[in-house]
Amino acid sequence: MEKELIHLSHISKSFGGKVILDDLDLVIHENEFVTLLGPSGCGKTTTLRILAGFETPDKGSVIFEGRDITNLPPNKRQLNTVFQNYALFTHMNVADNIAFGLKIKKQPKSYIDDKIAYALKLVGLEGFENRSVSHLSGGQQQRIAIARAIVNEPRVLLLDEPLGALDLKLRQDMQYELIRMKNELSITFLYVTHDQQEALTMSDTIVVMNQGYIQQMGSPEAIYNEPENAFVADFIGDSNLFPGVFVRDELVTIDGVPFPCVDKGFGKDVPVDIVIRPEDVELVEKERGTISGVVTEIIFKGIHYEMCVEANGREWVSLSTRPHLVGEEVGIYVDPFNIQVMNKPESEDEEAVSTT
Amino acid sequence: MKKKTNGLKKLYIGLIFVFMYAPIALLIIQSFNKSKSRGRWGGFTLQWYASLFQDASIGEAFTNTILLALLSSVISVVLGTMACICIGRMKKQTRTLMMGITNIPMLNADIVTGVSFMLLFLTLRIQFGFGTILLAHITFNIPYVILSVMPRYRELNPHIYEAALDLGASPAYAFFHTVLPEIMPAILSGGLMAFTMSIDDFIITHFTAGAGVHTLSTKIYSEVKLGIKPEMYALSAMIFITVLVLLCLVNRVQGDLDLKAKEARA
Amino acid sequence: MIIRRKTAGLLGTPYIVWAAAFIVIPLIMVVWYGLTDEHGAFTLANVAAIADPAHSKALLMALILSLIATIVCILLAYPLCLFLVQSQQNSTSFLTMLLIVPMWMNFLLRTYAWQSLLEKTGIINTALRAIGLQPLRMINTNGAIVLGMVYNFLPFMILPVYNALEKIDQNVVNAAQDLGAGRRETFTKVIFPLSLPGVVSGITMVFIPALTTFVVSSLLGGGKILLIGNVIEQEFMLAYDWNLGSGLSLVLLVFIIINVVVSALIERDEEERA
Q1: What is the mean pLDDT of chain C?
Q2: How crowded is the C-beta side of B6, counted as CA atoms within 13 Å?
Q3: pTM here?
Q4: In angstroms, what separates the C-alpha of A106 from chain C's closest C-alpha?
Q5: Does pLDDT of B154 surpass 90?
Q6: Is the Cβ pair C194, A91 closer than 8 Å?
Q7: Which residue of chain B comes nearest to C248, CA vs CA?
Q8: What's the order of all strands across the beta sheet hosting A282-284?
Q9: Confidence band (pLDDT; 50, 70, 90) for A356?
């Protein structure tokens, strides 16, 4: 792991009595692509704005390379932001927008011109210098907003739901573009989104947030495969989430039906939550399944079929390339390795609390 | 340091406020002044408020002013709203032309509008009086209605009208039950603006009133040289205070409604 | 909206007729009277009469005083609007209180009240004397007229400037700071340029009524200072020379048209940007 760049230390922030962030602690390393992921109101944008300097935390401090910058105004920070609605200066053309930060720093004209040309090339809009920004498409405005930020050579680029306003195809293209730009610039990206697909595609590290708390932090694979609690499991991808009992090491039951698993150390006969990804629910012949059920619904999704199976009064969702007829009796089998066991939250409140 | 600049900002806003209200405060104080001369305080009195109701000429000017404002704002609201429906579906070029013409009374100098009416009535040999003032007031009021209603009408979801038709409503029923309620706030605020403009107008009334008829404005203007009757201060103070109280009440009620709506949502 | 073409046309007819009869034709009458003599023969004499020293002096005076008043309005209104927008509270009711409510006190009376404040034995001079200062000659001066103009037309500057400032996206301001701009640079490079359309539209809304007023000058100028508005008013109401009055009004119309063209150009610019 590269060296530590930013430390958001015990940050709390509330607006008008409503707590947005509660004792948040987050470390970001150099040259890392970190994504803050969560539903709206989870505090992800506030976190980004505190880092950028647009909000001051009520408690806690922002440490940048070991220096406390909590009270440093935004214009003195070595980071730049790509805003949600781009926030381009409509009274300036493309070149003037990009040159804005460099002119403030009184850079020589030749340097500025080189930088503009370089930035436009990086974002794939060569020759757009003299265009009016209001005549650009959403995707192009997005690219100019990125160019305007990166010419200042920030240590960290903050991106606040930058792809939110774009249509699906463009969004997917821009995801790859952003990864490419990140690699070319080799700086830290801090990305805010509510789109789990975006987060999984681009990030080195995902920070899942809800109600002002960090729910889980880790690589996309870890977040997807080993969600630490029901919120993360539910938020990241579709999943089958069942209440169960952890009987002993390597054995759980769902509604009394035993399922072997690989997890250990939850105790004996402890109530737990069990997550099984739909693609891990295998539909087999009735006799070979751990339990059996009836197919109630089948939807063709392109690459695969999504099927609902009713078994023991519960609905299981399964993804498979092999279709089964509605009404067909099938067996359900889950590889022990694909059963994810999670502690049950002890109360409503704790549902939101980080389990780490 | 931030606190200090905040204080200075508040002071500045307060000074502008004083600037706008100092003459008004003075007029209200004047209305209680026993002395007829402006400069001197001759003791507190309510006599001007009493004699106000005996003064027939002020009463007539007041009635004219209110009647003009009411009639002109109601007529301009009806004409203006009808016009919006028509202009709203015109082709872009015709619409631009129509809106351009609509803008003329607002962009033109009042004195030029005033003399243009005067010339029209002179040429057509129309007797100057209440009727000519009313025509003029309606004309300069319609733009306020159109400029208030038009944006609202154009951003209206056209499907609500279609949905009403689809559900079997006649076009008239659909209009009065779907379109009209949606644009009502804009109509009201346009009408209120028109009412205010009509009450406050002097210049255009000056050129269209002729000899016999007075509104409060023209009466005040004719009295300026000789000294304004204290009853006029009393009347103006009453109008002003009434409006102020009404506005506060409306604000209070609206505030309450907002609060309730907020609570209901929470 | 699929209200039938015929119905819509029918609804619009009254206004179209009205606008033709009471907006367009009266203006044509002004042009007609302005370009003819009392016998109806074509002449440019009424317009050329602006060169008459008394008239050109009145026009020049009106131009100077209204320009000063416009500048003062900008200087007063801009900081006010900036502070109001920055205060981040809902300023709508405050603005109504400041700008609309005073209109319910007759504007002639309000202007007239300034006489009591400014005159020789008026309130301001009494106060000056009380603290041992020399009384000032304020009433019936150019300064008094400028003050009356500012007092009456300041709202026309505040509203567009406030709207322009309020419309500026906070994120755009944040973006400027994010890119390294301090307070002063954020203002000069972003906030002020973005609010410029509001200022220009305020200028066009203050300048014309100030230029053409005859009320402010006759109430606060004591009848000694004549502006072009006073000249026109007298031609119509005292001298009954409608041709001359119309001819001079045509001169004003030139200024008004320039004004309209400027504001239309700015509006189009803004629309293009949006």
Answers
A1: 89
A2: 6
A3: 0.82
A4: 11
A5: no
A6: yes
A7: B112
A8: A282-284, A329-333, A291-300, A305-311, A314-320
A9: very low
Examine residue C13 and state whether it is found in any structural domain, yes or no. Answer: no
As a CATH number, domain A4-225 is: 3.40.50.300
3-state SS, A310-343, equals EECCEEEEEEECCCCCCCCEEEEECCHHHCEEEE
How far is Cα B17 from Cα B170, in angstroms, rounded to an integer? Answer: 52
Contact B111 C24 (CB under 8 A): no
- For residue C172, give the chain A residue with the closest CA: A87
- Which of A81, A91, A105 minimises the CB distance to C178? A81
Domain boundaries, chain A: 4-225, 238-277+337-356, 282-333
Per CB-CB distance under 8 Å, the chain C contacts of B122 are 242
B119 to chain C: nearest residue by CA?
Answer: C29
Q: How far is C179 from chain B (nearest CA, A)?
A: 23
Q: Which domain holds residue C65?
A: 53-273
Burial class (CB in 10 A: 0-12, 13-18, 19+), B116: buried
Q: What ipTM did this prediction achieve?
A: 0.89
Closest CB to C30: pick one of B98, B112, B156.
B112
Both tokens of residue A356?
């780490």
- The answer as to whether C63 is a domain residue is yes
Total count of domains within chain C: 1
Assigned domain for C221 exists = yes
> Residues near C166 by Cβ (< 8 Å), separated by ≥ 6?
C85
CATH topology of domain B46-265: MetI-like fold (1.10.3720)
In the predicted structure, residue B1 carries a pLDDT above the cut 80: no
* Rounded Cα distance, A82 and A87, in Å: 8
CATH homologous superfamily of A282-333 equals: Nucleic acid-binding proteins (2.40.50.140)
Q: What is the dihedral of CA B202, B66, C16, B78, to 10 degrees?
A: 150
Q: What are residue A226's phi and psi, to 5 degrees?
A: -130, 65
Tokens 């200062």 correspond to C133
The encoded tokens of residue B220 equal: 């005040």
Q: What percent of chain C has pLDDT over 90?
A: 63
Binary contact (C172, A91; C-beta < 8 A):
no
Question: Which of A55-59, B33-37, B54-58 shows the lowest per-residue confidence on average (mean pLDDT)?
Answer: B33-37
Check if C273 contacts A (Cβ < 8 Å).
yes
Answer yes or no: are the C-beta atoms of B164 and B177 closer than 8 Å: yes
CATH number, domain with residue C243: 1.10.3720.10
The answer on pLDDT for A353 being more than 50 is: no
Q: Average pLDDT of chain B?
A: 89
Closest CA to A227 of A188, A195, A275, A269: A275
Nearest C-alpha of chain C: how many angstroms from B17? 6
